[in-house]
Write a structure and sequence with these properties.
By secondary structure, the chain is an alpha/beta fold. It contains 20 helices and twelve strands. It is 64% helix and 11% strand. Strands 6-9-10-3-11-12 form a six-stranded mixed sheet, sandwiched between helices. Strands 2-1-4-5 form a four-stranded antiparallel sheet, covered by helices on one side.
Length: 597
C-alpha cells in the first residue's frame, strides 16, 4: 500500500492545473457554457435592482401608473423565465463537458494500467487500482460538474454584487470589503485541514476495495478454511479507520463551512444596519436602497456559502486527482523494445546467454543462465519451488526486464523485436488458464477477426476440446462466466490450448500446462502437444517428470542456477538431483498403486 502523505499547496496547484488541462479539447463548449453562466448571473443581479426601482420610484412616492409598472413587472418576470431556461442549458453543458473529460481520463488511466509491467501489479492490490479508475475519477467529475461552475458563477456574482453595492453607496461598500479577508482566511484554513483528512479517507477507501477484491477472489479458500471471521474483523478495522477519517473531516466541515460563514454574514449585516441606523439621524434613508443592500448582502453570502460547501468536493477532487496522476506517472512500465519492424521470428531458435535477474534489485533469482533451444526441440525446466523456472518464462515473455546477459531469438536480441511480433509468434499456456466473459468461440479467437469459425473449431479439435464443447447446449456460442468457473480445470485448460493453437505460434511456452488435467485428458493433450511441437520451439515447465521424458533437453534448476542438463536418460544415469526427483515421484506413485491394489 502506498504511503499516505499530505499534499503541499504547490502539489495541489499542480494537480489543479493538470486537471484543467483536460478542458483544452473543449474550449468552444466551455466558452458557450461560461457565456450562458454569465447571462444567468446578470439575471440574478438585475432582479433586486428592478425591485429597488419599484420601491423607491413608484411604491414610496405613491406613483402607481399602470403602464410603467406593467413594463417593470413583465421585465422582472421575463428575466426570471429567461434566466431559468439559460440555467438549464448551462447546467447540461457543464455536465456534458465533465462527462467527456472523465471519459478521457478513465481511458488514460486504463491505458496506463495496460502498459505497466508485472512488477507494479506484484506490489499493488488489484482493488486499489480499481479504486483509482472508478471512485477517484468519479470524485474528479464532481469538480467539473459543480465546483468549476459554482466557483465561476460565484465569482461573477460577487463581482457584480460589489459593483452594484458601490453604485448604491460607496462608503458602505467599502465597509463590507472588510469581510473578504475573513472569508479568504476561512477558506485557506479549511483547504489545509481537509486535504489531510480527504487523502486519508481516499486511502482507506482504496484499502476497502483491495480487501473486498481479495476476499471475492479467494472466497472458496476463505470458506474452506473458515476464515470468514478473520476477514470480517480485518474489513471492519479498515472500515473503522475510514469512519474515523470521515468524522474528522465532518468536524472540519461543521466548523469552517456554514457556521463560520454565517458568523461572518451576521457581522456584515450588523455593519449594514448600524450604518443605515447612524445615517438615518442625519439624512433620509431610502427604503429601496436599504432593501437592495440587505438583499445583495444576502445574495453575496449565498455564493460564498456555495463556494464553501463546494470546497469539500474540490478538496476531494484534488486528492483524487493526485492519486490518479500518481498512477499515470508510474514508471514501472513493461520492458521497452527497441523495435525494428524489419526483423521477424522465422525459425524460433532461442538462446539464453549469461542471464542474471533480480526482482527487487538485491537478491538474484537467476544466475548466469545459458542454454539453447533449437526449432522443433523441446527444452524442459524442472526444479523445486523457487528454483527460478517461472522467472525464465517471465523474461522470455518480456514481462520483466533483465539487466545482465541477453536473450537471442533467431540471432537477434529479444529487445529488438516489436511487441506485436513477440506476442504473435509466442504462445503461452499457464497452469491456471484465464477465460474472459463472452463465448467459447470468443475465448479461442480472442477477437481476432481473421480467424474463421472453421479455424476455431479446427483448433479445438486439434487439442481434443471439440468433444466436450459439442455437447454443450450452445456449442461454441456457450456463454463463459467470470474466469470460466462453470467449467472444470481440464476443460478450461483445453480451451486455453485451443486458443494457443489457433494463433499458430513459432514458439510454445508451457507453464505446467497439464497439471490440472485428469489422466485421460492428459493423454489426449500429450498427443496434441507432440503434433504442436513439430517445427516449433517449446519451453516447458514441468513438475511431473513423466510429462517431459521425451524432451530434447532438460534443465535442472536449483536456487537460480542450472545444476544439471541433458536428456531424461542422461540425467538418470548421472544420479544427481534429477534422479532423486524421479525416484521420489515414482516411489510415491508405486506406494499409491500398492494402496489401491
Amino acid at each position: 500500500m502506498e504511503k499516505n502523505v499530505q499534499l503541499t499547496e504547490k502539489e495541489q496547484r499542480n494537480v489543479l492545473y493538470r486537471l484543467l488541462s483536460y478542458t483544452n479539447p473543449h474550449k468552444k463548449s466551455l466558452v458557450l457554457a461560461f457565456g450562458l453562466l454569465l447571462l444567468t448571473t446578470i439575471g440574478e443581479l438585475v432582479g433586486p435592482y428592478l425591485v429597488k426601482i419599484f420601491i423607491d420610484d413608484y411604491l414610496t412616492p405613491g406613483n402607481l401608473d399602470v403602464q410603467p409598472l406593467v413594463v417593470l413587472g413583465v421585465s422582472y418576470l421575463g428575466i426570471q423565465i429567461v434566466k431559468s431556461i439559460l440555467m438549464f442549458f448551462q447546467l447540461v453543458k457543464f455536465q456534458e463537458i465533465a462527462l467527456k473529460i472523465i471519459q478521457q481520463l478513465r481511458i488514460d488511466v486504463f491505458s496506463k494500467v495496460q502498459s505497466l509491467g508485472l512488477k507494479y501489479f506484484d506490489q499493488t492490490p488489484a482493488g486499489s487500482i480499481v479504486s483509482r479508475v472508478t471512485n477517484d475519477t468519479e470524485a474528479i467529475k464532481d469538480m467539473f460538474v459543480t465546483v468549476l461552475a459554482t466557483f465561476i458563477q460565484s465569482g461573477f456574482l460577487l463581482a457584480g454584487i460589489f459593483i452594484t453595492m458601490f453604485m448604491l453607496d460607496v462608503k458602505l461598500a467599502l465597509f463590507c470589503i472588510v469581510i473578504i479577508p475573513l472569508i479568504i482566511f476561512v477558506m485557506a484554513l479549511y483547504r489545509k485541514l481537509s486535504a489531510r483528512y480527504y487523502l486519508d479517507m481516499r486511502e482507506r477507501l482504496s484499502q476497502l476495495n483491495a480487501k473486498l477484491s481479495e476476499s471475492l477472489q479467494g472466497m472458496s479458500i476463505i470458506q474452506v478454511f473458515r476464515q470468514e471471521k478473520r476477514l470480517r474483523e480485518e474489513f471492519g478495522d479498515i472500515n473503522d479507520n475510514h469512519y474515523r477519517a470521515g468524522m474528522k473531516n465532518i468536524k472540519v466541515d461543521g466548523l469552517l463551512l456554514r457556521p463560520a460563514v454565517d458568523l461572518i454574514s451576521v457581522l456584515a449585516l450588523i455593519i449594514v444596519l448600524n450604518y443605515f441606523g447612524i445615517t438615518s439621524f442625519q439624512d433620509v434613508v431610502e427604503i429601496g436602497v436599504l432593501y437592495a443592500f440587505v438583499n445583495y448582502l444576502e445574495r453575496f453570502f449565498e455564493p460564498v456559502n456555495n463556494m464553501m460547501m463546494r470546497l469539500s468536493l474540490y478538496q476531494q477532487a484534488i486528492v483524487a486527482g493526485s492519486r490518479v496522476f500518481g498512477l499515470l506517472d508510474k514508471e514501472e512500465l513493461a520492458p521497452a523494445q527497441k523495435e525494428d519492424q524489419n526483423i521477424h521470428i522465422e525459425q524460433g531458435k532461442i538462446e539464453f546467454k549469461n542471464i542474471t535477474f533480480s526482482y527487487d534489485g538485491h537478491r538474484d533469482v537467476l544466475k548466469n543462465i545459458s542454454f539453447t533451444a533449437n526449432p522443433g526441440e523441446t527444452v524442459a525446466l524442472v526444479g523445486h519451488t523457487g528454483s527460478g523456472k517461472s522467472s525464465i518464462i517471465n523474461l522470455l515473455m518480456r514481462f520483466y526486464e533483465f539487466e545482465k546477459g541477453d536473450i537471442i531469438i533467431d540471432g537477434q536480441s529479444i529487445r529488438h523485436f516489436s511487441k506485436d511480433e513477440l506476442r504473435e509468434k509466442m504462445g503461452l499456456v499457464l497452469q491456471d488458464p484465464f477465460l474472459f466473459y463472452g463465448t467459447i468461440k470468443d475465448n479461442i479467437r480472442l477477437h481476432n477477426e481473421t480467424l474463421s469459425d472453421e479455424q476455431v473449431e479446427a483448433a479445438a479439435r486439434f487439442v481434443q476440446a471439440h468433444t466436450f464443447i459439442d455437447k454443450l447446449e450452445d456449442g461454441y456460442d456457450h456463454r463463459v462466466v467470470e474466469r470460466g468457473s462453470t467449467f472444470s480445470s481440464g476443460q478450461r485448460q483445453l480451451i486455453a490450448f485451443a486458443r494457443t493453437i489457433a494463433a499458430n505460434p513459432k514458439i510454445l511456452v508451457l507453464d505446467e500446462a497439464t497439471a490440472n488435467i485428469d489422466t485421460e485428458t492428459e493423454e489426449a493433450i500429450q498427443t496434441a502437444l507432440a503434433k504442436m511441437r513439430q517445427g516449433r520451439t517449446t519451453i516447458a515447465i514441468a513438475h511431473r517428470l513423466s510429462t517431459i521424458q521425451d524432451a530434447n533437453l532438460i534443465l535442472v534448476l536449483h536456487q537460480g542456477e542450472i545444476v544439471e542438463r541433458g536428456t531424461h536418460q542422461e540425467l538418470l544415469a548421472l544420479g544427481g538431483l534429477y534422479h532423486k526427483m524421479f525416484l521420489l515421484q515414482n516411489g510415491a506413485l508405486e506406494k499409491l498403486e500398492d494402496v489401491v491394489n
